[in-house]
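Sequence in, structure out. Go.
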Amino acid sequence: MKTTLLKSEDYTRSPWKNGGGVFTDIADAHRADSPAKDWDSLLWRFASTPIVAPGPFSHMPGIDRLQMVVGGRGLVLKAPGQEFDEREPFTTVRFPGELAIVTELEAGPVEVVNLMARRGAVEIELEALRARGDRVLSAGTHLIHAPRGDCSIRLGGESFAIPGGGTLKVELTEQSSLALASGLVVLGSIRLAA
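Output:
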């Protein structure tokens, strides 16, 4: 098990693919053989961003997306013939990056976290953990993010404190157990596609 504490002051910023806003980049991975770290070489990205006005999402062919509101409420994603309801915080929605989506804000700006991945390269999950109790983490990369203040966890028998806004990056070669000790965390999990 390898753990790295990523602090909010060390995160980088990058523009949305369509230029309509700015991501706070928390962690990512790109193809090792690519000369540049760009959208074409992206394997996965975990990021947060404010959505302050209604507007279109970036067109991201070949990218699967998971999204969750972590601040504010009332976000709805509208696509032709369907709707993704994120009105309540900590609800995860999944959609393909090719989908033409426009945001609707029913109660003002929101803050969201996104986990994006190259389809067919990796598999991703995103969930909020609010209740205590053990859960099994499979081999892969896990991002344990503290969106609302400090939190603490136990991982494989060790205790870890995660400051508000921080993220514990965990790389596992075999399964381990995770238990939330205090606070609330968002767990993003990435594993190589079978």
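Check: The chain has two domains: 11-120, 124-192. The radius of gyration is 16 Å.
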